[in-house]
Amino acid sequence: MSPDGARVVLNRNESGFGRLVVVDVSTGAVTEVAKGVHGQLRWVGDRVMALRTGGRTPTQAVAYDTNADGTAWSRTTLAVGPVAEWSQVEEHLVEPELIEVSTYQGARVPARAYRPADPVARAEGRLICWVHGGPTDQWQVTFMPRVTFWVSRGWTVLVPDHRGSTGHGRAFQQAMRGRWGSVDTADVAATIAYAQALGWGTRERTVLMGGSAGGYTALNVLIANPELAAGAAVVYPVTDPAVLAGATHRFEAHYNDTLVGDEPVVVDPALIARPVLILHGDSDPVVPVANSIEFARRAAELHRDVELHVFEGEGHGFRQPVNQAAEYALTEQFVARIV
């Protein structure tokens, strides 16, 4: 809020894209200031300070001069994150395009597609559908090196906001209540089918990816719609929401109660018909690694193509650079094997 209390500055979420706006408290008038996802907002004197980022913009600390009209605020970049090497791949830093997909029950599901700039790469029709975690979360259009990694290799990266995602209002988020594993699976499958109809990928060249709850959805899509993808690469995936409720850390102990229905959807290894890669840390406090170990053991007994790698000392997300590099290498090797 401005020092005089007359105006409020905020980041507006527009289907995952960010925009800085100023709201006049007395009139409710909204003035658009700048594109990009803005966080850590603070109004000090005649300056608004923020962290700003976007699909092509590494995180920067910026200051806006508020003396002018909102549409004319000047921006000064105070500091920029490590970008020395990004200039070498600038052609692969892309802004995503927004699509909307009709799914069953008349729902409209937004998704953002990061497409290679090279028309030859686009024509190859290689598609990654990357499902965010949460499951009540959203991947806004921020600077995401992991997306750039795959775009630089000629892949279209599709990021859907299935029902239950944040950023689209209360009703959209609560549409998952009691239906986790059902509506998200249907929405992601519909999004993949739509992208493939556009020529962005084929079943033989489509790979599902996701972590945690996103891994759960990716595996469910692979089981329910094996005709849509060649396989799935997931990290620390949920495989049984009911088991998770009793084993996760205290902060999320009751988080799943409103998401899981009377009959939780369990990922059954017997139903896996496509190759799966699982990466998991042995110190994960959110999704116990024992779940992935047991899943891989049962899959092996059933002669399913499930590859598991456990990383020592890692939790819910890999922090050690050597393991981060291994995640990329193992995933790339897996994708090269199945596509």
UniProtKB/TrEMBL annotation:
Pfam families: Peptidase_S9. One of its GO terms (biological process) is proteolysis. One of its GO terms (molecular function) is serine-type endopeptidase activity. Signal peptide: none annotated. The keyword Hydrolase applies. Residues 143-337 form the Peptidase S9 prolyl oligopeptidase catalytic domain. This is Unannotated protein. InterPro entries: AB_hydrolase_fold, Peptidase_S9_cat. SUPFAM superfamilies: alpha/beta-Hydrolases. Keywords: Hydrolase. PANTHER family: DIPEPTIDYL PEPTIDASE FAMILY MEMBER 6 (PTHR42776:SF27), SERINE PEPTIDASE S9 FAMILY MEMBER (PTHR42776).
